[in-house]
Amino acid sequence: MHEHDLKSIGLHAAQRAVDSGGVLKKVSEPFYSGGQTYTHVLYTVRGATYRVAQSIAAHITERVVERNAFQCAARGCDGCSKCGYPAGYMQGRGAA
Question: pLDDT above 70 covers what percent of the chain?
């Protein structure tokens, strides 16, 4: 399924998903739909996948960093093309 076809997720639901172990991944090409720019995809522990608006991603970024919830963080990432953040971005932000 393409990111354009995914359901969007709201702020509080995204926060709960990350708190429950969901992971965030930056999309390769941001896209505009329904008045929002979508920049990330959220994968929940229950197997659901949602597109995440740029404004929501901005609000949950610190929570995601605190919980090491970037897609590639499990491999000790300190920023790369998979999570979409520059090298060194997560240094000092709780990433492994």
Answer: 68
Measured in Å, how far apart are the chain's first and last C-alpha atoms? 31
Indicate the DSSP class of residue 13. Answer: H
Write a three-state SS string for 43-94.
Answer: ECCCCCEEEEEHHHHHHHHHHHHHCCCECCHHHCCCCCCCCCCCCCCCCCCC
- Say yes or no to pLDDT of 79 above 70: no
Dist CA 27 CA 32 (whole Å): 12
Cα dist from 84 to 27, 46, 57, whole Å: 8, 23, 12
